Amino acid sequence: MEQLIKYLKELGATKVKLMDGGNGRYIRYWTGTDESFTLPCGSSEKSQSENDLSKFLILVTEDGQPIATVNKHQEIAVMEL
Q1: For 12, 31, 47, 74, which has the most beta carbons within 10 A of its beta carbon?
Q2: Paired strand residues for 6
Q3: Ramachandran region of residue 12, left (φ > 0), alpha (ψ -120 to 50) or beta?
Q4: pLDDT at residue 74, as a whole number
Q5: Nearest to 55 by CA among 11, 4, 1
Q6: Cα–Cα distance for residue pair 44/38, rounded to 1 Å
Q7: What percentage of the chain exceeds 90 in pLDDT?
Q8: What pLDDT score was predicted for residue 47?
Q9: Coil, strand, or helix at residue 9?
Q10: Residue 1's CB: how many other CB atoms inside 10 A?
Q11: pLDDT of residue 48
Q12: What own/partner pairs with CB < 8 Å and gap ≥ 24 does 62-70 have?
């Protein structure tokens, strides 16, 4: 897993905000343009209560969706179906 800040810099982000919305927290970031993008935050209490952006990591799901989390995830087992 990669640090959120490093991940966003690789995407060309110039500004990032931790936001709180009706469905929980999310990350909002801007690139060199005025266009903004969002990333969901994990739903754990730990991820929903952390206020320090430098503590967030990025978890990328199998379908390519990045999720900001403060929990460390590791693969335990894999089975081909």
Answers
A1: 47
A2: none
A3: left
A4: 67
A5: 4
A6: 18
A7: 59
A8: 82
A9: helix
A10: 13
A11: 85
A12: 65/40, 66/7, 66/39, 67/39, 67/40, 67/41, 67/42, 68/4, 68/26, 68/27, 68/39, 68/40, 68/41, 68/42, 69/41, 69/42, 69/44, 70/42, 70/44, 70/46
CA dihedral 25, 45, 72, 20 (to 10 degrees): 10
Cα distances from 38 to residues 8, 35, 80, in angstroms, run: 11, 10, 32
12-28: average pLDDT: 93
Under DSSP, is residue 54 helix (H, G, I), strand (E, B) or coil? helix
**Residue in the block written with tokens 């690789």:** 10
Strand 2-3 relative to strand 57-60, pairing: antiparallel
Q: Give all strands (DSSP E) within the chain, no chain letters.
A: 2-3, 15-21, 24-30, 36-40, 57-60, 66-69
